[in-house]
Amino acid sequence: MATDKFETSLMKLEEIVKRLENGSLTLEDSLKAFEEGVKHASFCSGRLEDAERRVEVLLKQKDGSLKKEPFESAGD
After folding, report:
1. Is residue 30 situated within a structural domain?
2. DSSP 8-state assignment for residue 75
3. Confidence at residue 52, expressed as pLDDT on a 0 to 100 scale
4. pLDDT in the model for residue 27
5. What is the count of structural domains for the chain?
6. Is 61 within a domain?
7. Which residues face 70 on adjacent strands?
8. Against a cut of 0.85, is the pTM above it?
9. Helices (DSSP H) in 1-76: which residue ranges?
10. Which domain holds residue 43?
């Protein structure tokens, strides 16, 4: 399931950040961890962008009916 991949990637990214913040990695290991982190961050960002494009907000009309409208973020 795609959600599982997102959650797994996000958890791995969090672990990488903790390891990098710890400061105990060698320079070479830090670079490898950073590269892996960039891949996970890119994957997660892409999944979130995909989800945002698919989100539709249901708004209740005065007559009780529901109206679908495309999601617009605060930055739009």
Report:
1. yes
2. T
3. 75
4. 97
5. 1
6. yes
7. 56
8. no
9. 2-22, 27-54
10. 2-70
Grouping H, G, I as helix, E, B as strand and the rest as coil, residue 60 is: strand
15 inside domain:
yes
What is the pLDDT, as a whole number, of residue 53? Answer: 72
> Residue 71's closest CA among 47, 51, 45?
51
First to last CA, the chain: 30
The CATH number of the domain holding residue 44 is 1.10.287
User: Alpha-carbon distance 6 to 45, whole Å?
Assistant: 10
User: How big is the CA angle at 16 (ends 42 and 55), to the nearest 5 degrees?
Assistant: 35
The predicted structure's pLDDT at residue 46: 94
Spans of the chain below 70 pLDDT: 1-2, 55-62, 66, 70-76
Show the CA angle centred on residue 30, arms to residues 9 and 38, nearest 5°: 35
The reply to whether 20 falls in a domain is yes
Structure tokens at 10: 């996000």
